[in-house]
Structure formats: structure tokens, C-alpha cells
Amino acid sequence: MEVRIINATTLSSLGSARVAWSGRLGTSSLSRLYSPGKTLQEIRIQAVSSFPSVVVTREKGKNQKLIDLLDSHGISNLELPLIEHKEGPDLDMLPSVIQEKTFDWIVITSPEAASVFLEGWKLADFPKARLAVVGVGTGQIFEKVGFKNANLSVDFVPSKANAKNLAEELPKLSSERGKVLYPASAKASHELEMGLSARGFEVVRLNTYSTETVKSIDPSILALAVSAPVVALASPSAVRAWVDVVDLSTWLGAAACIGQTSALAAEKAGFKRVFYPQSPGIDGWLQSIIEALETQTAKEAA
User: Fold this and answer.
1) Cα gap 253→14, rounded to integer Å
2) Class in CATH terms, 85-212
3) At 299, is the pLDDT very low, low, confident or very high (cuts 50, 70, 90)?
4) For 34-77, how does the pLDDT look when each residue is reduced to its tens digit (9 = 90+)?
5) What is the CATH number that goes with domain 2-82+218-301?
6) 270 phi-psi bin (left φ>0, alpha ψ -120 to 50, beta other)
7) Strand-strand pairing, 83-87 and 202-213
8) Is residue 13 over pLDDT 50?
9) Which residues, in sequence order, are bridge partners of residue 87?
10) In this structure, are residues 102 and 178 in contact, taking their beta carbons and an 8 Å threshold?
């Protein structure tokens, strides 16, 4: 198992034949590669000159920033959304809980949790909210809103972007038992609230959304995806979704993860090579992708 933490990587030219393919595979390209009756092997053979280097897997509509960065560095990419977000069982409770109760902290652990919380906060008529976010990337969701509304402030980010450090480092604001609101994915582990409870915090968890695996994938797109040497993964759910559709015993590519949480999930799932940045975020993620590509290219040349 090779797990590499990326601190800083020179954005060098990869010099791979795979990089000659530019941009996402559009509908017109797919129509040339795929038609009813073709086998996946025939699609692979026909697409050999158009292999993507990286598969991007976030929910549909949330891959564009990474795609633009990859395009700007000449890295060919294929968009294959593997997950989708749906309403959680506690979503309707969120506005009233925000409005009626006072919390020392509202803890946010992902960009999607941030977006869902903001909608509830607006419906609750913008009450004061002191936020603790798991990392810089999640905090950026609040930046524009924070500049416009003094009632919303990001006041804490842990030293490492994971639930363990957040639970261990969240400040207590008084000697009394602090109250924490934790709007989360229904699929999120209980590590955070258990860690906070062990320190004496009273934690209210609301499962405001759920991360689900996409049920149907176009076989032509999947055929191209398995030709890529690197898959970009932004959550444990995406890791699980990739493993559900790709046999890791025959696909020998690398996982480039957005942060440590996803990387640990990839390692447990059986990926042989896992790369992730020390600090989660889009720029570090790009560096991890480049490092993974360089390693894969060197491996193929050996």
C-alpha cells in the first residue's frame, strides 16, 4: 500500500500521451464512441486515442472548478458523477432548531453540510451563529455570506481537517457544558459527536442530508473511466461508489483524494496507491492528482 501526503508539488509537464486528450467527453464525442450493440471492449479500442487521465466523481454540477483547473494544466479528464445528495430525515427541523435554541457552536464538516445549513439558517431569519468548520474548503462556503451578515462567523478551524482533531480541539467557551449543533450527512460516522460528548459537550445531531450512490451509469462513460490511471475522490461515499463499479483487482490506477478522511476510506477499500494533500482544498487536491499521474506514468515506463 502506497499512501502519500502531498505538501507541495511542482506543477510540471506530465509528458504523457494520455494528456493529449483535452477536455471532458461531450455528448457528441460519446455518440461517435458508443452505439447500441457495441461491446465495452469495442468502445475501449475505439477510444484508445482519447483516454482521459483523470476521472472526476463529485455530484453533477459540482465538478466544474476542478475540471477548469485540470484543463488549465493540460490534464485530460472525464466527468463521472458517482454520488448525489438527497434530503435527510431531519432537514425540516433545522430552521426551528436554529431559531429556538442557543448553541455555543454549530459544527460543519463538509461543503454540502455548509450549503444545507445556510438554507436552514436563512429560513430561520439569520440568527447569530458561531461556526466551527472542519477545514478551509468548508469554511470558504461561508465567506461570501459572512461578509454580508455579521450574525454569521467562522470562529474555529482545527489544526488538521478531520473529525478527530475537531472533536479534540473545539474550544469550550465556559466552564458549563457547551451546546453543539451538528448538521450532518445521514451517512457520516459518529466519531465527531462521540469525541465531543466525551469532553462534556452536549451535542444535537441533525441528519439534514444523505449522500447516495448514483444508481445508473452510462456503460460508454464507465468504459472510458476504467481506462484512466487516476480517479479523483472527494468523500468516503465516492470511494465506496467507485469500488462498487470498478474491480480494484484488475484496475491498477491510483486514488487522488481531497483530504485525509477520503484517503483513509480509499486505503481501507483496497486502493494500492493513495494520494492526498496535508491541507484539504482544491489546490492541494490538484497537486495530489498531478503527483498520482506522475507516479503512474513512471510506473508504466518502468
Assistant:
1) 16
2) alpha beta
3) confident
4) 334 434 333 333 333 468 999 999 998 899 999 999 999 999 99
5) 3.40.50.10090
6) left
7) antiparallel
8) no
9) 209
10) no
